[in-house]
Amino acid sequence: MLLRAEFTTEPFHGEGDPPPHATETLALLENSGLTCEFGPLGTMVEGPEAVLLPALQQVLDIALHHGASRVTLQVERVDE
């Protein structure tokens, strides 16, 4: 099954470099070989269920341990 997830980590930072809770989660996903789109208000990632779901569990862990106060996550099936 192919899935697409979009998540936002908070707190938001205005200008300047993105915070570690955003950049570290992106690095994890890219190192997992997943296709990502990193934007100012969130990250979109797409991949097979077997790879994406375990990676999302790690995203939550990494974000919270790198200063995120909230992670908002949406997951949808895209292979139908």
UniProtKB/TrEMBL annotation:
Per the record, the coiled-coil ranges are none
**Where does the Thiamine-binding protein domain lie?**
7-75
- The segments labelled Disordered in the record are 1-20
Cited SUPFAM superfamilies: MTH1187/YkoF-like (SSF89957)
Q: What is the recorded name of this protein?
A: Thiamine-binding protein
What is any Pfam family matched here? Thiamine_BP
